[in-house]
Amino acid sequence: MHETSWLVQLTTCKKKRVHHLVITCAFEFNGMPTIAHLNILPLALYNMLLGMDWFYLHITKVDCFDKAIEGLDDNAEKVV
Fold first, then answer.
1. Considering only CA atoms, which of 36, 28, 3, 32 is closest in space to residue 18?
2. C-alpha dist (Å) from residue 21 to 3, 63, 70
3. 37, 45 contact by CB (below 8 A)
4. Which of 20, 46, 50, 73 has the fewest beta carbons under 10 Å from its own?
5. How many CB atoms are closer than 10 A to CB 29?
6. Distances from the Cα of 65 to the Cα of 6, 15, 52, 54, 80, angstroms
7. Is residue 1 part of a domain?
């Protein structure tokens, strides 16, 4: 647990207080090994939510119409 807590705003416009953070959590995103700093929130319907900082870092394009995400891995290779 951190010494301080902070608020995270969800897409519902509600704010949740965060007390736990996982630094450099390794995971696979569509076969691409990657890492992210994760705020731990009690969200029952999701395994993980990635923040805008992760999307920005990987120059990610989200295509809502085709339900596709593409970006760059750590070697600047395109991942879909």
1. 3
2. 11, 29, 26
3. no
4. 46
5. 17
6. 34, 28, 20, 21, 15
7. no
